[in-house]
Design brief:
The complex is a heterotrimer of chains A (271), B (310) and C (351). Chain A is 73% helix and 0% strand. Chain C has two domains: 158 residues, Periplasmic binding protein-like II (D-Maltodextrin-Binding Protein, domain 2), CATH 3.40.190.10; 151 residues, 3-Layer(aba) Sandwich (D-Maltodextrin-Binding Protein, domain 2), CATH 3.40.190.10. Chain C is 38% helix and 17% strand. Chain C has twelve helices and ten strands. In chain C, strands 1, 2, 3, 4, 5, 6, 7, 8, 9 and 10 form a ten-stranded mixed β-sheet that branches. In chain C, strand 1, helix 2 and strand 2 form a beta-alpha-beta unit. In chain C, helix 7 runs parallel beside helix 12. Chain C is globular, with a radius of gyration of 22 Å.
């Protein structure tokens, strides 16, 4: 029965939900705590605490493999994000705010394919394709990784840009046309600046997605092309020292900073 | 350029011309993105299809010889000693485990995630953003880090066992690592933000006056939840479920790290064929099977979403 | 203004991209590089540092977990590696598949340090293709605080005692597992006898539910007491014992395997000169000692003993006790027919 004597009835309250929500938040963050704590373990066992020390951060910093893998991750993510954002912006412009045309559904399906198809399927397909190309051309540089990453980053860049574009009505561009502006300057001076927050969000999302990728990179990489996630995967299956904790903690910190940035940016956007 | 004429036919021509030009521009704009995607996402699927009809090479790779063995081996098993053909139990149990664990992951994610999303959506707008922020951070954390975090807490000397031992609830550490439970825990932990966010998006748009109306009519909280809130939030719930179910089904990293090489899921079985299994065609066939299962799930989603908006 | 900026960014990016692509492909810039494909957690960083300093070569290590993975990767082509480290029984396979070049190891300067026992093995006659890396055995690792009985038998993982059920790991290394099981059921090495193989398959399939995992990386698991037993290699057992003093290494009396890993030169290696330098480098006594010191396996180089850690001279993991010495065999490469059947059993087990 609604309302207990003396207590106001809150519509938006469901009994037990706040408790479950708190449990959920606790469960989300709790595993990260020992992860970070043990990164400061002086001993080299990830379970036995032997005192406080920064040695694993130093070790990770000195580790050539870690450094090289990190650099590779950033480079590949930068290129992939750059290309994906450009392609996605063009695609968004071509598919939004227009009348429906034939094949639109197919195009959506193609663009969003990486979101719908399990990563392992794409990874295997690319492994096969690139193996054929590698054998035929003998080339095994970074182009494979960059192309693969660009491809699966496109939908992640596309969605925010499209969302932003849909929220922009055409009146400003029509006004520019009324003032005899040609299409390209209109785009550059009117559309693009308005679209920039969406493009930026798309680029950042693509960057993070590429940085985090494990499965596709693991299958597609050649000799010495480990990215940070694949390096960590290798270590996880063999030697687990607090060095992994240290690297994870640093990555965690970077994630927190990024998310905070995005949050502040999106709030100022709507302010 | 023709002068604008009062006659309708001339005006229509201009409009049609503009429209065709617009379509052409749109296609040109979209082509590059599609090109890359076809080359590095959709196209390779076709090549994989071809590979599934070839013969495995002795030490990996393929021989370019047509064979239906791979597809046969997905479902059937020919005993190496007495050549009897039977249902491939091993594959079936892996399919079953994958479906079971993905389904359970989705359910647990829903049970925990729905109340959480509801909680966040019903906070006052100022604090709401903070809660959202707190949910998004794990979402942006690397999958490996999250899986590793679970590994650390369920090990025999990990936090959970230490806590249970310390409280005197158990005598010896529970062997949680390398079990199906470990994989379930790992996948739920990794994918739960994907359940919370879409449900939150749906709940945020919910008009609570409808809820208020329900209470005004003396409905109990449970009834309001079941009859008013849930149906309205259904699109978000379905989206969240799909976003959790599909990646879980094709999960590779989490079962590999937490499953110990013994509790294989479909993703691991596929990878095996490209390593020790030395059977690329079978790996290709299994991948396509996974894809087909996912497509079925997606069609189901699209249909139910259409029924909502239809 | 924004356009010129865009254009400048684009050209800068294209330049960086082209540089990246060129260096990645390892084309003409291969002068000071070496791509080493080795088992994970098996290379002493100090060894690599020393080599890099002495010869001005940048070494990149990529790791693999098993002979099978290595073979699959190299066989698939387009790998970009110069050197790999297969186990002895696999070396003839690599040769017959045409994956190796012949660097005439026996004619290298440091070959004189190779112990007589290893100068002319069956699996690499004349020691032309491979330079010795490390050698060891496949045996039983047990945490004796959990199980106090006899550990010198393969029954630990095939017919496990009650205390160990659910806490056993088996190395996912096909030949090691199958050979040990064949000996356990009383068969001959490389047998194609279907009755024996059927027993092997059934035994393995029956035992599998009692195992906890089939994975690598057991050292930490024993240290953290997540595992109590494993079929694994002696060096890892040694390193596990250093972290958990209850760990002991047992030699299955029914028959256990000996193996030798050797460094080979891949046919499509891009840095042949540096590769040969490295192969020669590892045959010097001090360097061989560095290799052993890290992974705790014995090496094949005379005179390296004086550079190795003292505890290796007496450890049971390295020095095989008298009573078990005859039970150890270097498993040869089995004929293709046997290989096929073993692969079939293995894939069935893996599922």
């Amino acid at each position: 029965m609604p309302g207990r004597a003396g207590k106001p009835f809150v519509i938006k309250h469901m009994p037990g939900f706040p408790v479950i929500a708190m449990v959920c938040f606790f469960a989300l963050y709790m595993p990260l705590v020992p992860l970070v704590i043990y990164s400061f373990n002086a001993g080299n066992n990830i379970a036995l605490w032997e005192g406080f020390s920064f040695r694993w951060y130093v070790a990770a910093w000195d580790n050539e493999l870690v450094k090289a893998a990190s650099v590779r991750s950033i480079v590949v993510a930068s290129f992939a994000s750059f290309f994906a954002t450009i392609l996605a912006t063009m695609a968004a412009l071509g598919t939004t705010r227009t009348r429906p045309f034939r094949g639109q559904l197919t195009i959506y399906a193609l663009i969003n394919q990486p979101l719908m198809v399990p990563e392992i399927v794409t990874a295997v397909a690319l492994l096969i394709l690139f193996a054929l190309i590698k054998e035929a051309t003998g080339y095994h540089g970074y182009a494979y990784l960059i192309i693969a990453h660009t491809a699966f980053c496109i939908p992640f860049a596309y969605l925010p840009i499209r969302a932003r574009l849909e929220g922009m009505d055409k009146t400003l561009e029509t006004a520019a046309a009324d003032l005899y502006a040609r299409p390209w300057p209109t785009f550059r001076r009117v559309t693009l600046p308005l679209l920039l927050p969406g493009i930026f969000a798309g680029a950042m999302l693509a960057f993070v997605i590429s940085l985090d990728d494990v499965v596709i990179t693991e299958f597609v990489k050649s000799a010495g092309q480990d990215t940070l996630p694949t390096y960590m995967l290798g270590q996880l299956r063999r030697v687990i020292t607090p060095e992994i904790n240290a690297i994870s903690s640093v990555l965690l910190l970077i994630s927190v900073i990024l998310v905070t940035l995005i949050f502040f940016l999106s709030r100022s956007k709507t302010a | 350029m023709a002068a604008v004429s009062p006659y309708p036919s001339a005006a229509l021509d201009l409009e049609a011309l503009a429209r065709r030009r617009e379509v052409k521009t749109n296609i040109l704009l979209t082509m590059p993105a599609l090109g890359v995607l076809i080359a590095a996402a959709s196209g390779p699927l076709l090549i994989m299809l071809i590979f599934s009809f070839l013969t495995p090479g002795d030490y990996g790779g393929v021989e370019w010889q047509l064979s239906f063995d791979a597809w046969f081996q997905v479902v059937f098993y020919e005993d190496i000693f007495d050549e009897t053909v039977s249902l491939a139990d091993a594959h079936m149990s892996i399919f079953w485990r994958s479906l079971k664990l993905s389904f359970l992951t989705t359910v647990v994610a829903f049970v925990l995630g729905f109340p959480t999303a509801f909680f966040i959506a019903t906070r006052p707008p100022e604090t709401r953003n903070i809660w959202l922020f707190l949910v998004t951070i794990p979402f942006w954390t690397n999958l490996l880090i999250r899986t590793f975090a679970i590994l650390e807490i369920i090990r025999n000397q990990g936090v959970i066992n230490n806590a249970l031992l310390g409280l005197g609830l158990i005598d010896a550490p529970l062997d949680m690592l390398y079990t199906d439970i470990a994989i379930l825990l790992g996948m739920t932990y990794v994918y739960i933000p994907l359940m919370i966010l879409p449900i939150y998006a749906s709940l945020e748009r919910l008009d609570f006056r409808l809820v208020e109306a329900g209470y005004d009519l003396y409905a109990s909280r449970w009834k309001v939840l079941k009859r008013i809130i849930m149906p309205l939030v259904k699109p978000g719930v379905i989206a969240g479920s799909i976003l959790v179910f599909i990646p879980s089904l094709g999960a590779y990293v989490t079962p590999r790290v937490l499953g110990g090489g013994k509790n294989l899921m479909l993703g691991n079985l596929i990878e095996l064929q490209f390593g020790q299994g030395r059977n690329w065609p079978l790996g290709a066939a299994l991948s396509l099977t996974l894809l087909m299962i996912v497509m079925v799930a997606l069609i189901f989603y699209v249909r139910s979403a259409q029924r909502e908006t239809g | 203004m924004t356009i010129t900026l865009e254009v400048k960014m684009k050209s800068l990016l294209t330049k960086t991209l082209s540089i990246l692509l060129l260096t990645g492909s390892g084309a003409a810039l291969a002068a000071g590089e070496l791509n080493f494909f080795n088992w994970g957690n098996y290379t002493n960083p100090k060894l690599i540092e020393k080599f890099e300093k002495e010869h001005g070569v940048k070494v990149t290590i990529t790791d693999y977990d098993s002979n099978e993975t290595a073979l699959a990767k190299v066989r698939a082509g387009g790998h970009g590696f110069d050197l790999a480290v297969p186990s002895h029984s696999h070396v003839p396979i690599w040769v017959s598949e045409g994956l190796l070049a012949n660097p005439r190891v026996d004619q290298m300067e440091n070959f004189k340090y190779v112990d007589d026992r290893w100068r002319n093995p069956d699996w690499d006659p004349g020691r032309q293709y491979s330079a010795p890396w490390q050698w060891g055995s496949v045996g039983i690792v047990v945490d004796t605080s959990v199980y106090k009985g006899d550990i010198n038998t393969a029954a630990i993982f095939l017919d496990p005692p009650a205390e160990l059920v659910g806490k056993i790991n088996v190395a996912p290394e096909m030949l090691d597992v199958i050979h040990t099981t064949v000996r356990y059921v009383g068969g001959e090495v490389c047998t194609t006898d279907k009755t024996v193989l059927r027993k092997v398959r059934d035994k393995l399939v029956e035992a599998k539910p009692k195992w906890k995992s089939m994975d690598y990386g057991i050292i930490e698991k024993f240290a953290g007491r997540d595992l109590a037993a494993s079929l694994y290699w002696n060096g890892a057992a040694f390193r596990a014992r250093l972290k958990n003093s209850d760990v002991r290494y047992g030699y299955p009396r029914e028959g256990y395997g000996l193996w030798a890993d050797a460094v080979v030169l891949l046919k499509d290696a891009k840095n042949v000169e540096n590769a040969r330098l490295f192969m020669n480098f590892i045959m010097a006594p001090e360097n061989a000692a560095l290799i052993s010191e890290f992974a705790r396996y014995a090496n094949s180089i005379k005179g390296s003993e004086k550079y190795m850690p003292a505890d290796m001279a007496t450890a049971t993991e390295i020095v095989v006790p008298e009573e078990f010495q005859s039970a150890g065999t270097f498993y040869p490469t089995c004929p293709p027919e046997a290989q096929k059947m073993y692969t079939a059993i293995w894939t069935e087990l893996q599922k």
